[in-house]
Amino acid sequence: DLPMTTRDLLRVIADYAAVVAANRTYLIELDAAIGDADHGENLDRGMKAALDRLAEADPGTPADVLQTVATALISKVGGAAGPLYGTAFLRAATSVRGRGELGAADLVGALRAGLGGVVARGKAEVGDKTMVDAWDPAVQAAEQVVTAGGSTREALTAAADAAEEGMRATIPMIARKGRASYLGERSAGHQDPGATSSALLFRVFADVADH
Ligand code: ADP
Ligand code: MG
Ligand code: MG
Questions:
Q1: What is the interface pTM, i.e. ipTM, of the complex?
Q2: Where is the DhaL domain (predicted)?
């Protein structure tokens, strides 16, 4: 089982930026139903800014990559999701500071730290119809695989599968956090945009680990 290098993480970010760009309209449509129709635009702008900054910064470690992405998202994305993802990347960076490359346990620790950042910032719980509904089961699934002695690839694949399941589980939920909560019961029947973009992120991690 190969560790994730700085180069691998740069690939994750570049691939995620491409996936967000390809899903920009989809994420906007999801947010149009229960929010203000900007999630795809927000994240696309943030990831493009992250790529620009990475090109300038030439990061030497995984923590440098994660921190550069975090600051780009926090400073360039106005919506709720920018600071939430930004805090996730920042906490993940802190958790792997000093490591030259990431083994399975490092990666799972970084994901757990990232989830902790989202929760610290947004105070959402599982069932509130937010990105936490994708992140929480994803992190739990990855931890279970690593605890059982599984590989990075297996852990990240389990995380991506669980995130997608969590994303779909947001459809019937009534939103209790963010703009969608203003709709009350009318938020039910729609998939949460942030849970969707989070599931896309976990799938990119799994795909990069698979190559
Ligand atoms: P905004 O709602 O400010 O326009 P975005 O559209 O970019 O921001 O992001 C909306 C997404 O942010 C939601 O779909 C949800 O997943 C996530 N979100 C909103 N508030 C919270 C929160 N308090 N905790 C976790 N996630 C949240
Ligand atoms: Mg929005
Ligand atoms: Mg907005």
A1: 0.99
A2: 7-207
